[in-house]
Amino acid sequence: MKFAIVGCGAIAWRGHLPALSKLEDVEVTSVVDLDKTRAKRTAKKFGVRRYYTTVDEILKDEELDVVVIATPTPTHKDLAIKVADAGKHIIVEKPLATSLSEGLSIKETVKKNNVKLCVVQNYRYFPSIRQARKIVRQGFLGKITNIYGIAHTPWPNQWTRGTWLYYEPGVLLDFSPHIVDAILWITNGKPQRVYAIGGDFTGHSNFINYAQISIVFKNKVIGTIDVSWLTGTFRYHLYFMGTSGMLEVDPRFNVVFRSHGIPTPIDDIRYFLTRMKIIGDVATGRFFTMPQLVYQYFYKDFIRALETNGRMPVTIEEALETLAVLEGAYKSIKNNVIVDIEL
Amino acid sequence: MRKKGSKIIVVNSDYKTLYYKLEKAMNLYGSLPLKSDSTVVIKINLCDARTPDTGAITHPLFLDAILRFLRENYGYNLEIKVVESDASVALPDLFIEWFGFTEILNKWNAKYVNLSRDAIIYKETNGRVLKSVPVPKTINDADFFITVPKLKTNSLTKITCCLKNQFGCLPTVRKNKYHNVIDDVIVEVNTVMRPDLCIVDGIISHVGIQGPAFGYPFHSNLILVGNDPVAIDAFVSKLLGFNPKSVGHIVKARRMGIGEMEYYLVGDANIHRIYKPNSLEWLLFKLGLYLRNITKKKTNGGS
Predict the structure, then answer these.
(1) CA distance A204 to chain B (A)
(2) How many CA atoms lie less than 13 Å away from B30 in the CB half-sphere?
């Protein structure tokens, strides 16, 4: 299967290209970047034969199967439409687009051209997230009543010198899609309403750098997510509360901890041992390699789905749901209203 | 009897009483050799996207106090330029706006200059790493150069203060390429961009193993003033729990004649250690970084 990567930034270097280079029967035939030097450097580093500065040049390649769009989010819509019109399958980095209307345009074009599109939600492939899904779906927590999530990251300057995230929705379109997607995917919840508070906590930047988002699901479950660029930490925690227990999930530290009933010292020991797994993960290097391995798992799933004409690992409908929640949160913060999600 | 070493003014202050305390410190220091139309360059520290209350970047109120002092004491004809440069994770053009510096610059008619976009003059140093140092024209042409560092720990160099602040004068964006030889580069930069005056914003320090940007704030309530960056850094090392003789760039700077490690203190006596480094924690952190780097190399780009 032949792939091309559009956008030679941090995520292509850290996620896509290393993952694709490790898969069998996969070839990255070309890379594209507006910056010719960067495209050339990327091609050299990952042994890619061709490099270009515009996407039009790769679309002429009849043998090309899939185009990976790893560019800043504001460019996703135009690129995805162009690639779909050329009859190529698409992988696009999260979030799908900057707005629901852009996302719907992409969906329409993809459908019209009968190509497949998959959004990269790599966090679904962290072992702890997959385990959490099983636990929730198998009913070990009883009926889920509420979910609490924290997604705090340093500002994006830690991984890109690009400035496209520093506009009105800010933090909502950075790491937040990961946690919203995880909640929707694990619970299979259908969001109905969103209310959010937050904004610019520096006082001078005019974009959202902190937000607390409450989501009411159609099955009455309530989710609350706390997203921030301000704390300077990297924290991703999920807590699922049900009628028969509680589940704590931390994908980065590979923690999945279930508690039922009244806590006993045995629970404390279990919790301690669960947390101590990190020592083994650091010693084996797994702690550092996992963020990249999940890209490999994602690509394997994607290729399998494409070959068997099966369901995409992350469908465009799922990506639109995530986008609808985040756009709802943005509107809610801006206008101080509860926003109904209509899809 | 003449005291041995360089003079360091130490004044206790918080941000509420800052201006008067800064004025006190400057009076203890003595008058500055400024003419009414001198060009003064002030190097602040905007190393990362952290809010001023974290202590990781210069507090805008601190800059406000310095600018007010200069204007009220040396007049409105001074040309004042506040400088910072781009770095791997630093976008000072944005940070100036986000963290409230723009209003202060406008209020005191000071100009912001991004040194990464400045004209460059190369100066020979014949150093171990940099044979010649790119000096931004703004600094080269300045009549008086004030460095305004924060008081912080640094996972690479143990401490970061008066000497390390000039590393941020290098116009190069990818400064992290020098991290393996940082002590040498700091010294080489200071041989051609030695500040005339150092005013340390130590009201909120930033300490911990993840300094200089991801540690934690400590309200140390200090203003330090002096003209010897080596002496101040030696004093700061002690405040941060490190032996100055174990801090590579301080020792090398002394050897290169940038300043001396001996000092005497003038001003307030209420000084105590700010931070006590835990050797095991620092060792584990370095080990973690080492393991991550090995894994990065193995995984063809890293995670």
Answers:
(1) 5
(2) 7
Of B48, B100, B299, the CB nearest to A292: B299
Whether A157 sits inside 8 A of B89 (CB atoms) is: yes
Contacts of A123 in chain B (CB under 8 A): none
Average pLDDT over residues A297-311: 96
Q: How far is it, in rounded angstroms, from Cα B90 to Cα A163? A: 12
Best mutation target among A201, A204, A235 (most B Cβ atoms within 10 Å) is A204
CATH number at residue A167: 3.30.360.10
- Total domains, chain B: 1
Residue B184 CB partners (closer than 8 Å, separation 6+): B127, B128, B129, B130, B252
On the question of pLDDT at B241 being above 70, the answer is yes
Predicted confidence (pLDDT) per residue in A222-246, tens digit: 999 999 999 999 999 999 999 999 9
**A-chain residues within 8 Å CB-CB of B297?**
none
Which of B89, B94, B100 is facing A163, going by the closest CB pair? B94
Residue B72 belongs to domain with CATH number: 3.40.50.11440
Give the bridge partners for A215, in sequence order: A194, A223
Based on the fold, state whether residues A90 and A133 are members of the same structural domain. Answer: no
A145 interfacial to chain B (CB closer than 8 Å): no
In a domain, A149, yes or no: yes
Same domain, yes or no, for A149 and A202? yes
Q: How close, in Å, is residue A205 to chain B by CA atoms? A: 4
A150 and A112 inside one domain: no
Domain's final residue, options A65, A96, A120: A120
CATH of the domain at A65: 3.40.50.720
Alpha-carbon distance A214 to nearest alpha carbon in chain B (angstroms): 26
Within a domain: A303: no
Q: What is the pLDDT of residue B268?
A: 87
Question: Min CA distance, B50 vs chain A (Å)?
Answer: 7
CB-based contact, B49 to chain A, within 8 Å = yes
Residue range B161-181, pLDDT digits in tens:
999 999 999 999 999 999 999
**In 10 A of CB A311, how many CB atoms?**
11
Strand pairing report for A89-93 and A66-69 = parallel
Domain boundary residue, one of A120, A137, A166:
A120
Q: How many CB atoms lie within 10 A of CB A72?
A: 15
Is A95:A89 a contact under the CB 8 Å cutoff?
Answer: no
CA dist list (Å): B160 to A18, A307, B54, B96, B168: 36, 55, 15, 21, 11
Residues of B in contact with A42 (CB under 8 A): none
Q: Is pLDDT of B297 > 90? A: no
What does pTM read for this prediction? 0.91
A224 reaches B (C-beta below 8 A): no
- Which residues from chain B sit within 8 angstroms of residue A166, using beta carbons? 94
Q: Is residue A104 part of a domain?
A: yes
Looking at the predicted structure, is the pLDDT value of residue B112 above 50? yes
Statement to judge: residues A80 and A225 lie in one domain: no
* Tokens 């061709």, residue located: A50
Residues A184 and A260 placed together within one structural domain of the fold: yes
Q: Predicted ipTM? A: 0.85
Cβ A13–B301 below 8 Å, yes or no? yes
Q: Which domain holds residue A252?
A: 124-297+321-340
